[in-house]
Amino acid sequence: MGMHVPEEIRTEAAALIDHHALGLWKPSDADRRAAVSLYRFLETGVPLTSEQIRAALAHAEPPAGLHERLLTLLDGTARLLDDAAVADSPAGRDAVDHVCLLLDALALSRLSGQ
Fold first, then answer.
1. pLDDT reported for residue 113
2. What is the pTM of this model?
């Protein structure tokens, strides 16, 4: 999987945020549950970790229910976070921020019943 470059992750997260906002992508229950589990972790104020992402993906129900682009994005984000030098760079932090914005949007869409 090639999505480990921070700019690619940021671009893909931004695209998914737009698709979701425009109604072009309707997240499945599995998408939302994975987002909510990561969002609850983020709400504690602890930075996102590759372990958290992998745990959320491992517990996704149904496992095949995750949108392919979301799965690829989260997998790439976990790999980016494994590389501390890249994750701590400005581009890396920006990419992770965008992934967190996407998780927020998905988690909140579930809560508001949209």
1. 47
2. 0.89
